[in-house]
Amino acid sequence: MKLFIKRSLPLALLLASSCIVNGAPAPEAKADYLANKKANIENRGKVYNPQQWSDHFDLMDTNRDGILTAQEKADFDRARKTRTAAKTPAPKKAPAPAKQSAPKPEPKPITVAGSKAPFTGNPATTVWYHQPANDFDQTLVLGNGRIGAMVYGDTNEETIVLNESSVWSGSRADNDIVGGYKYLPEIRKLLVEERYREAGQLTKKHFSSREKPVMGKGVGTFGRYQTLGKLHLKFDDTAGAVTDYRRMLDLESGLGRVSYQRGKSSYTREHFVSAPDEVFVSRITGPVSFTVSMDRPERFETTAVNDRELLMTGRLNDGKGNDALQYVGRLRVVGGSVKAEGNTLLVAAEDEVMLLFAAATDYRGMAGRQLSDPLAVTIADLDQAEQKTFAQLRAAQKADHEKWFNRVTLSLPETDNSRLATDQRLAAYRGGAADPALSALFANFGRYLLIGSSRPGGLPSNLQGIWAEELHTQWNGDWHFNINVQMNYWPALNCNMVELHEPMVSLIESLVEPGEKTAKAYYNAPGWIAHRATNPWGYTSAGMMDLGSAAWLCEHLWEQYAFSSDQAFLRRAYPVMKGSAEFFLHQLWEEPENNWLVTGPSKSSETAGKGPNGDRSSPCYAPTMDMQALRQLFANTLRMAEILGVDAAFQNELKAARARLAPNQIGPDGRIQEWIKPYEDTEPTHRHISPLYGLYPYYEITPESTPELAEASRKFLEKRGVGQSTGWSNAWKINCWARLGDGQHAWEFVHQMLLDNTYDNLFSQFRPPANAKSKKLFQIEANFGLTAGVAEMLMQSHPESGEIGAEPIIRLLPALPKEWPDGKVTGLLARGGFEVDIEWADGEIVEATIHSQHGHPCKVRYGEKTKVLKLNKGESQMLSIDEL
Ligand code: FUC
Q1: Contacts of residue 319, Cβ cutoff 8 Å, sequence gap at least 6
Q2: Is 479 near ligand 1, meaning CB less than 6 Å away?
Q3: Is 463 a pocket residue for ligand 1 (Cβ < 6 Å)?
Q4: How many Cβ atoms from other residues are within 10 Å of residue 13's Cβ?
Q5: What is the position in ligand 1's atom list of the atom closest to the CA of 781?
């Protein structure tokens, strides 16, 4: 620990001196930063006039720490004016008026006293508060994979944010530009000559997209994941103080609960989203009388269909100005006395009333319900749910949720701090209080979120899972695959939720058809390719040139097989893998210096090295990550073909090409090299750690089989530092340090995420906002990456090397930090189909149990010792420390 702090000190100083970590960056530092960014962009051959500069302002800053506050923007504008005497930017167009306008939220006075009853729940699976949420990032998060609900829990006016996973604007569009392949020889020549700037200009011209994803304001055909809307319950009885307030989310059973006392009356609201019954359910108990309404910021109409049902519906923009996707949110009141008044319902009940909410869209595409009449389906959903009592609905939802959640349990030591309300617990932790169980809660929350945002047959979990209260989700709430969507699915396998990985598989499969057109158009190549990001409309066009990302996606297909041994899945996945491998085989070219096979133009995600004449090496050729991803793709495709007994000649082709791919290299500074040449970094603490793809999630770099490369990876991680606090970057680093067998460093990043990347409701934060009130940048993948990372610290099962056919090894407690001396984990899943339970005390295993699902050969490693177990299908073996 000490050692690490010492090593990273220069980095910490560097970050502190440029005022970019933790807290508000000074406007001057920000202005400098943006000026540098502008210079970098101009170095790439782009010229900005002041108007464009201003238009791009938000977007450029987005890469750093989210949209600026009005104050920061004003400060910056002032700073820029004095520096460059630039003109004042023209005012932006006002957004189109909404059909009905959503009421503006009023600041809420705090009139609530929390319950003094001691907390008796499980601190590793309960999120709770003494007060209602003031903001989205303090809400109770609920979901059934498709419908999301976020509960504020106010006692006067309850607000519940509603989501449905297919609420996407945009539409299908042909964005490919044909003919880039004619310029590939010239671009590649320029790359080899290290004339990156010119290579970049040509690439940009011929490998662009007709219409790129629109970031920030405005809509394009790429579209954007949007909020469905909000449900408001305005209570009539607001007189009198509220006491005994508690708001709680039980991760184990997926129940949100708000309870309080007002005067002599007790009130309880229980909420859950049911997958078996396709509805969001709320039971409101107490002598209540309230008004129900629903709205969203634009494009909606809410009507009272009858005396107990509210309907909110509308159509989203297709990106070309037409009304397109239809969404429906329908709420029905069951029990109590209800009557419609305008576009609201007035509800009164002596003891309890139930609200059922159904949602649907007419999205028909890669996954989802494929409906043509969401109006009718929401009626059918409600009719069906209404047949059941609250207790029956809850029993079905609970059983369904627990089926996933209880597959794994994790407990770490509790302290007094563990019994505090979640927001206070986080604050005290940040103040230095120890609380290992808080890490367990955070890790369990990631599993909870995957269950809530990804179910078989549904759309995959996006950049915000399914939870958004805004229309303008950051990065369109899409599926980015230069790290993000993959990270969403990291815990699906090692945390034993293989079935929940299915939407990721559908996403990859959905890229094949459009990706084949894209491969043909730009590269004149067989197979399929997609570039960096996609939407539900099949976007695969060029523009963002991280080529290796597509090969990385395919890794998920192999891994699903590796964990499940599902032969039917193998047959389904193989053609997709083969199509990707065919594309890359066709695209590989021989660089003249070493005759290695390489990719290019491509990128090492979102960063660049300093080329010899000052050019930034982006695009580049043979970025280390691409080469690693291709070794993975070729090995796994080949392995699949071998198991299936098909395509012998193709197998040979893959083997031969794999052997000639540019190898991993160690630079003069001892770090793994990011580019084919040992360039200096332009951004030494950049959030992406692309050349460590080979360490995690792939495993061609391991301390056992490639100690020098493992050491070079360690050096790379050290230089990237601990102060760089993009959520997903920290989460990736947990996994990398775990693979290096370094529990202390892995823990450092778990800790860092709790300090810097966690909102009060445990949603992960892309970056600590400079101004917590106005800058929200929730991105979910770090939640998932952390969960996978904690599991990876406790158990790993990757093969010892990237050799084709290398067999998995189960490693027990490979990266245990001293902060978690005692603990217990059950149900982690290992490759080959083994469920693993481990209990440890004083940093040492007490006992471990291995349960074999398929009777495959089993190797278990603890410390230096490796043991071979013979387990039949369905058999378990318990091992004590003496047997390991
Ligand atoms: C990648 C990252 C960004 C952001 C975006 C959604 O491109 O580099 O930081 O997370 O995805």
Answers
A1: 169, 170, 171, 173, 211, 214, 219, 220, 221, 222, 223
A2: no
A3: yes
A4: 11
A5: 10
Burial 295-321 (b: 16+ CB within 10 A, else e): bbbbbbebebeeebbbbbbbbbbbbee
Q: Would you say the CB of residue 484 lies under 6 angstroms from ligand 1?
A: yes
Sheet holding 844-852, edge to edge: 409-411, 823-830, 834-841, 844-852, 876-880
Confidence at residue 46, expressed as pLDDT on a 0 to 100 scale: 53
Q: Which residues of the chain have pLDDT under 70?
A: 1-110, 723-724, 768-776
Q: What DSSP assignment string belongs to 69-128?
A: PHHHHHHHHHHHHHHH-PPPPPPPPPPPPPSSPPPPPPPPP--EEE--SPP-S-TTTEEE
Which ligand 1 atom sits closest to the C-alpha of 688?
8
37, 64, 482: residue to mutate for ligand 1 pocket, most atoms within 8 A of CB? 482
Tokens of 252: 């184990």
Kindly report, residue by residue over 65-122, the tens digit of the pLDDT: 333 444 544 554 555 444 434 333 333 333 333 445 555 555 555 579 999 999 999 9
What does each C-alpha distance from 541 to 178, 208, 714 come to in angstroms?
10, 8, 35
Nearest to 20 by CA among 32, 3, 8, 10: 32
CB of 739 sitting under 6 A from ligand 1: no
pTM higher than 0.70, yes or no?
A: yes
Q: Do strands 344-349 and 288-295 pair parallel, antiparallel, or not at all (unpaired)?
A: antiparallel
pLDDT computed for residue 35 by the predictor = 55
| Distance in angstroms (rounded) separating the CA atoms of residues 136 and 607 | 32
Query: Which pair of tokens denotes residue 582?
Result: 């065919």
The 10s digit of each residue's pLDDT in 17-38 is 332 223 333 344 444 445 555 5
CA 410 to chain centre: 21
Closest CA to 455 of 270, 230, 278: 278
Q: Which of 789, 793, 792, 771 is nearest to 781 (CA)?
A: 789
Which protein residue has the closest C-alpha to ligand 1 atom 10? 484
